[in-house]
Write a structure and sequence with these properties.
It is a single chain. The longest helix is centred in the C-terminal third of the chain and has 30 residues, at about 290-320. The protein has ten helices and nine strands. It is extended. The protein folds into two domains: about 15-155 and about 295-325, Triger factor/SurA peptide-binding fold (Orthogonal Bundle); about 175-285, Roll (Chitinase A, domain 3), CATH 3.10.50.40. Helices cover about 50% and strands about 15% of the residues. The protein has a four-stranded antiparallel sheet with strand order 5-4-7-6, with helices on both faces. Strands 2-1-9 form a three-stranded antiparallel sheet. It has helices spanning about 40-50, 70-90, 100-110, 115-125, 130-150, 160-170, 195-215, 215-225, 250-255, 290-320, and strands at about 30-35, 40, 175, 180-185, 240, 265-270, 270-280, 285, 320-325. By secondary structure, it is of the alpha+beta class.
Length: about 325
């Protein structure tokens, strides 16, 4: 049981380790919005932001400077939406049977490793009050119940709809030829001097000699972590399976002519000298309906869920007074 129903996600871009330059948010209980008079605070906002972007917990509560505004906007939208849904559930007199609430309370307590850990949570998040926690869980369940009626049940997709979508979009399920690659990249500065060009080339040649001595993708990856200069180094240089249009043309021409286990020569690509190791190959193929029907059904239902949630949000907001401070 999770208190809250936030489902927004922020896509991970590049490496999360190099993005955290923003200051840590310190909540004070300040009002950030009112929904029909109900106060939402910066503590609520921070909790939602951490749900959307959990990486911030690993970086002292800091959010990426370039993404913080969007994360904050998404979190505030979600807080307002949840409050609007809760108020609508209360207006419809939705109730949570005591027995069901007790089961949820028990399940929530079982998430903690010890009674002390549970007590610490209760003290930090509910002022030590079990009744406040009970109210939070009841509120969450009322939100979930209304969303079940207005969103989840209406988003169900029949098998015939899934099959019809597949028949109309068969080209979408054609997989292009792809290769699984790892890379090591030595970056060339903008407008380099001849000396800088020579220096990068020399380091690239040294890296190539080391790469040729590696015996496995793991050894190549460890070398990439050590000497590569692009963001993929934190992933051991591993791009996994990618198609020709997902890599620079100079790299694609080489990579798609290699066999698994081979290491390329130096490749001049864009602003770098690149070394490629090929780990696998996949030929182009057409996925059958049987292969994709389950995942396609989930995708179509997820799309309907998004549409229905947006529509519900718009309808509730039209009738509400929402103030952002």
């Amino acid at each position: 049981m999770v208190v809250g129903t936030a489902v927004l996600a922020v896509a991970q871009t590049k490496s999360p380790t190099s993005m955290f330059k923003s200051t840590t948010m310190t909540p004070t209980g300040k009002t950030v919005a009112r929904v029909n008079g109900t106060v939402l605070t910066d503590r609520d906002l921070l909790g939602e932001m951490l749900t959307i972007f959990p990486y911030a917990r690993q970086h002292g509560g800091k959010f990426p400077e370039s993404m913080e505004a969007d994360i904050r906007r998404g979190a505030l939208d979600m807080l307002e939406f949840e409050e609007l849904v809760y108020q609508e559930a209360a207006r419809r007199n939705l109730t949570v049977p005591p027995a069901r609430l007790e089961i949820a309370m028990k399940a929530f307590r079982q998430q903690f490793n010890s009674p002390d850990e549970y007590s610490s949570y209760l003290k930090a998040e509910c002022s030590g009050s079990a009744s406040k926690l009970r109210a939070k869980i009841r509120r969450s369940m009322m939100i979930e119940d209304l969303l079940q009626v207005e969103v989840s049940l209406k988003a169900a997709v029949k098998d015939a709809e899934v099959h019809a979508f597949y028949q109309k979009n068969t080209a979408r399920f054609l997989s292009a030829e792809s290769v699984s690659v790892q890379t090591i990249s030595l970056l060339i500065p903008d407008n380099p001097t001849p000396q800088q060009e020579a220096s990068v080339r020399k380091r690239a040649e040294d890296a190539l000699q080391q790469a040729r001595k590696t015996k496995s993708s793991e050894e190549f990856g460890m070398l990439a972590e050590k000497v590569s200069e692009d963001d993929w180094r934190v992933m051991m240089g591993d791009h996994q399976f990618i198609t020709p249009n997902q890599m620079p043309p100079e790299v694609a021409r080489v990579a798609f002519g290699m066999k698994p286990g081979q290491v390329s020569e130096l490749i001049r690509a864009e602003n770098s000298w690149c070394i490629v190791r090929v780990n696998g190959q996949k030929a182009s193929s057409q996925a059958s309906y049987e292969q994709v029907k389950d995942s396609l059904k989930k995708e179509l239902e997820a799309s309907k869920v998004d549409t229905l949630r947006r529509t519900l949000h718009q309808q509730l907001r039209k009738k509400a007074r929402v103030e952002e401070l």
